[in-house]
Design goal:
- The chain is mainly α.
- The chain has one helix spanning 5-75.
- It has a domain at 40-76.
- The protein is built from one helix and no strands.
């Protein structure tokens, strides 16, 4: 049994295709990891945003109360 040139080329093409598929799988795994990290970061940022909005609202309420007291003192 002899190896034909077409068999060698086919083997080379299959090997090249396997390497390309493996590289794509590596890239996919990298993207999946990056995506998970970005989702975690987004979650933390959303929590930070909520905290800052709450603090902003509390500060607004306090300022409005102070303004109300100042206006009441002004009319007294």
């Amino acid at each position: 049994m002899s190896i034909k040139p077409t068999d060698v080329r086919l083997d080379e093409q299959v090997e090249l295709l396997e390497k390309q598929v493996n590289r794509l799988l590596e890239v996919l795994a990298s993207f999946a990891q990056e995506n998970a990290e970005l989702r975690e970061r987004e979650q933390r940022l959303m929590q930070d945003r909520t905290t800052l909005l709450d603090k902003n609202n509390k500060a607004r309420v306090q300022v409005e109360a102070m303004l109300g007291r100042l206006k009441a003192m002004e009319h007294s």
